[in-house]
UniProtKB/TrEMBL annotation:
Domain of life: Eukaryota
Keywords: Membrane, Signal, Signal-anchor, Transmembrane, Transmembrane helix
Organismal lineage: Eukaryota, Viridiplantae, Streptophyta, Embryophyta, Tracheophyta
Protein name in UniProt: Trichome birefringence-like N-terminal domain-containing protein
Residues covered by the Trichome birefringence-like C-terminal domain: 86-342
Signal peptide: 1-23
Protein localization: Membrane
């Protein structure tokens, strides 16, 4: 007995000594946060859904199969981060965690693309549960699951800052004011998006003047205007959001392929590396300086590599219209929602 006691004591003391002198006794067992933004597309034949059959509420412009797209290779890719794995989307678990909650997407039609993907993924997970889809206002659309008392909404807002109409001067984009912020309050999760409308030029431009303070500006660098506008949004979040009640995320910049190569008849992902994308550094810099936590869904590289994922001529608007900005569903936006799922799951369980 005494010998057994002394051996046990020695083993215990040796263990305590090793634990004490080890520089990382606990940290070694902790997983480092995964960087989902870096990786590549790998072949994966587990197609998530057929929107025409599984999600009849998907907008016409996103349902590429219904609009006549015959090549289906674009459905057979999955994003593989370089240093870890992206969790598979589990709609049932998502709804259990966010039961009784309200989620709001605020942004342009790329935001709508992501919102429609999420509603479809959730509906597929619980196909026998009732859902409601209502257009509450011209800008606000609500998708609800009464069984879970959960609502996933999209509020159309291309700039986040104010776009006002003046009878004499026309359309004025006020870079330093937000008058619609009350519409963003009272939600459990906010997912903001703005970028593409800022890059429009010529006839597709939706403003006539910029305004900062009392100064009207006929023209300025559009990325500089984007920087000022996004800074105004950041100040609004810092002044109005309680992080203990609301999670805030920013849907990163999705690359468009309105370039020489385009997206017409593209059937496979590109290969990296890719050049820096305009506006990304602005987003990262502003978010990094905010007082309130905002999580960035960094989707730029994974979209840069997927010029095959756009609707192209398969929008239902005829072959004369080529869309290299939005995304087919099923498709790339489902990955954005897997990233959203992973981000929300990290602190929700």
């Amino acid at each position: 007995m005494p010998l057994t006691f002394h051996l046990g004591s020695l083993i215990l003391l040796a263990s305590l000594f090793l634990w004490t002198v080890s520089p990382f006794p606990i940290q070694q067992q902790q997983q480092q946060p995964c960087d989902y933004s870096q990786g590549n597309w790998i072949i994966d034949h587990s197609t998530l859904y057929d929107p025409s059959k599984d999600c009849p509420f998907i907008g016409q412009g996103f349902d590429c199969l219904k609009n006549g797209r015959t090549d289906k290779d674009y459905l057979n890719y999955r994003w593989k981060p370089s240093s870890c794995n992206l969790p598979r989307f589990d709609g049932g678990k998502f709804l259990e965690i966010y039961k009784g909650k309200k989620i709001l997407f605020v942004g342009d039609s790329i935001s709508n693309n992501m919102w429609q993907s999420l509603t479809c993924l959730l509906h597929i997970a619980i196909p026998n549960s009732n859902y409601t889809l209502t257009q509450q206002t011209k800008e606000l659309t609500v998708f609800s699951f009464p069984e879970y008392e959960a609502s996933i909404m999209w509020l159309k807002n291309g700039f986040l800052v104010d776009l006002v109409h003046d009878k004499e001067k026309g359309r004025i984009l006020r870079l330093d004011t937000i008058s619609t912020g009350n519409q963003w309050k009272g939600f459990d999760v906010l997912i903001f998006n703005t970028y593409h409308w800022w890059t429009h030029i010529g006839k597709s431009q939706t403003w006539d003047y910029f305004q900062v303070g009392n100064e009207l500006i006929k023209e300025m660098d559009h990325l500089e205007a984007f920087k000022i506008g996004l800074s105004t949004w950041a100040k609004w979040v810092d002044s109005n959001i309680d992080p203990s009640k609301t999670r805030v995320l920013f849907q990163g910049i999705a690359a468009s392929h309105v370039d020489v190569k385009g997206c017409l008849r593209q059937t496979k992902p590109d290969e990296g590396p890719m050049p820096p994308y305009p506006g990304v550094d602005i987003v990262k810099n502003i978010i990094s300086k905010m007082e309130k936590p905002v999580e960035l869904l960094d989707i730029t590289l994974l979209t840069q590599l997927r010029r095959d994922g756009h609707p192209s001529i398969y929008t239902g608007r005829g072959e004369s219209y080529v869309d290299c900005s939005h995304w087919c569903l099923a498709g790339v936006p489902d990955t954005w929602n897997e990233m959203l799922y992973a981000a929300l799951l990290e602190t929700s369980i």
